[in-house]
Write a structure and sequence with these properties.
Elements: E1 23-27, H1 28-31, E2 37-44, E3 53-56, E4 60-67, E5 69-74, E6 77-82, E7 86-89, E8 95-99, E9 107-114, H2 119-122, E10 126-129
Antiparallel strand pairs: 1-2, 2-9, 3-10, 4-7, 4-9, 5-6, 5-8
């Protein structure tokens, strides 16, 4: 592994889901050789939400919101997020998010994750909960 690598992921305004799903997601760590840090670039159009909750056994994640307005469910809490919000979520905590229907544009964020070992040693560390209902009160 070299001492640095460069990857162009494009203008956040152009992030879209090539399959037409609700979440545009790009796993940066699959495209650039990282060893200890995982990252993804994400976007949800206004009114969109992720289709499941998830948690990690070992990894903690930091969400850096870049544009739009939304809500993030963290455990039993719902927090408002917008450009400039940063949310850290520790291991074992369920999380989900949505873009508010009246968001001025897509909710866009970077997710940065790391744990106590290399990503390769940790392997796939996520669990999905498709049965838990979303907490959004309309």
């Amino acid at each position: 592994m070299s001492s640095y690598d460069i990857l162009e992921i494009g203008d956040p305004q152009a992030w879209t889901d090539p399959d037409g799903g609700p979440v545009a997601k790009r796993f940066i760590d699959k495209e650039i050789p990282t060893q200890y840090i995982g990252a993804s670039a994400n976007a949800l159009e206004p009114g969109g939400e992720v289709p499941f909750w998830h948690s990690h056994d070992v990894l903690e994640e930091v969400y850096v919101f870049l544009a739009g307005r939304g809500q993030m469910a963290v455990g039993d809490d719902v927090v408002e997020v917008q450009a400039g919000s940063v949310v850290r979520v520790g291991p074992g905590v369920l999380r989900a998010w949505r873009a508010l229907p009246d968001s001025p544009g897509a909710l866009r964020w970077l997710c940065i994750r790391a744990g106590g070992d290399t990503l390769e040693a940790i392997g796939r560390d996520g669990q999905l909960d498709r049965e838990r209902s979303m907490p959004w009160a309309e």
